[in-house]
Amino acid sequence: MTSPFSAVKITDDVWWVGAIDWNIRDFHGYVTKRGSTYNAYLIMADKITLIDTVKAPFREEMLARIASVVDPGKIAYIVSNHSEMDHSGCLAEVIKAVDPEKVFASPVGAKSLKEILTVDREITGVKDAETLSLGNRSLTFMETRMLHWPDSMFTYLNEERILFSQDAFGMHYASLERFDDEVDPAILAYEAATYYANILLPYSPLVLKLLEKVTAAGLDFRIIAPDHGPIWRKDIGGIIERYGKWAAQKPSEKAVVVYGTMWHSTEKMARAISEGLSKGGLNVKLMSMSEVHRSDVMYEILGAGAIAVGSSTLNNNMLPMMADVMTYMKGLKPKNLLGAAFGSFGWSGEAVKQLEQLLAEMKVESAGGGISVRNVPDGAILARCYELGLTMADKVRSRL
Ligand code: FEO
Fold first, then answer.
1. Distance from Cα 87 to the centre of ligand 1, integer Å
2. How many CB atoms lie within 10 A of CB 287?
3. Domains, the chain, ranges and CATH?
4. What per-residue confidence (pLDDT) applies to 310?
5. Does the annotation count 228 as an active-site position?
6. Could you tell me the distance, in angstroms and rounded to a whole number, from the CA of residue 152 to the centre of ligand 1?
7. How many CB atoms lie within 10 A of CB 245?
8. In sequence order, what are the residues at sequence separation of 6 or more whose Cβ sits closer than 8 angstroms to the Cβ of residue 202?
9. Active site includes 38?
10. What are residue 255's phi and psi, to 5 degrees?
11. Rounded Cα distance, 185 and 368, in Å
12. Can you tell me which atom of ligand 1 is nearest the CA of 149?
């Protein structure tokens, strides 16, 4: 029986030969509710070239898709744009199966792949702006260091004006539809933003520089082909514009209230703060960490102007669910936020100070002293919470 897996045509000479991971739900801490794809691309030039590979368990699927176009043994070059294992996990096995003439990566990628691969194979480092001839086609490489690993690079297929952008401009979305114009725009907008907030946010200053560099180089893309999710062939300007907006991290009239509660006291405070924020003119998202995932919080924080974080005190600490989201958030380095902490306690009450400390380490501007209450908040405490929300809203609006 022939394989059910076949390649998807992008242009006459370029094919998608990746794999669809319908079932993945946890991508190193980021919840991927709609699964993902690992995209690899085949360029049928004089020198047949494979751009990236897929996660190890999906090697056979990728090889079957390649075989629907050409005998994989005819691949001359493999280009690794990014060494993370969702794109290099089967590279050693593919090199053994295909025996290409050469394997290319950025100089840092060439080193890191040597540490990742168990095959003794020379990887050729290519420099920023270097061009590689494929005979009747040519590739130009662009280093994109720390977007989002030190090895990351883009590859541009000059004659076809296709940018192979590895993780950038991608999203975790499993589908048999391969192109942006085949997917509900609301899903594209949500998943692209969630991906940016959970993967690329810490590198926003580099994203801005990269967008400037791409503009200065006058690159005119016809297609952006990322390593996850749909290929952009319709709304290329839209996704580039959104990256510019997300990377700028300008605050908006939006506040996110995130809390963990034991016996609903901290929750009452969270709701009072939310009412004040809303009355003060902000759009509010109230998120209980018992009910939402840390990556949903990051989606909401993208572009927000304020964050209020609350926790009960448990055994002299904030609740583990709040330590989880705060650690995750701190690593993703959101900028330009105004913040405050709140919470209830039974006898010691360390959580609010700990939250304030973390907000300070994240360089979140303080909206004023946190509100901490023993046991259950009374009307006066809830009024203070409401006032805190109003004050935060005023400050956010004055910064816009
Ligand atoms: Fe899709 Fe950074 O790997």
1. 7
2. 19
3. 8-248 (3.60.15.10), 254-393 (3.40.50.360)
4. 98
5. yes
6. 9
7. 15
8. 148, 331, 332, 333
9. no
10. -125, 145
11. 40
12. 2
Indicate yes or no: pTM above 0.70. yes
Nearest to 269 by CA among 353, 387, 397, 392: 387
CA 5 vs CA 1, 65, 67, 176, 395: distances in Å: 12, 5, 9, 11, 55
| Ranges in the chain, pLDDT < 50 | none
Which pLDDT score, from 0 to 100, does residue 1 have? 64
Establish whether 394 is a catalytic residue.
no
SS3 395: helix
Nearest CA to ligand 1 atom 2: 84
DSSP 102-145: EEEE-HHHHHHHHHH--S----EE--TT-EEE-SSSEEEEEE-T
β-bridge mates for residue 41, sequence order? 16, 51
Active site residue 264: no
**CB contact at 8 A, 221 and 11:** no
pLDDT tens across 319-331, in order? 999 999 999 999 9
Alpha carbon nearest to ligand 1 atom 3, residue: 84
Q: Which two tokens stand for residue 299?
A: 């989606």
Q: Which letter does DSSP use for residue 232 in this model?
A: B
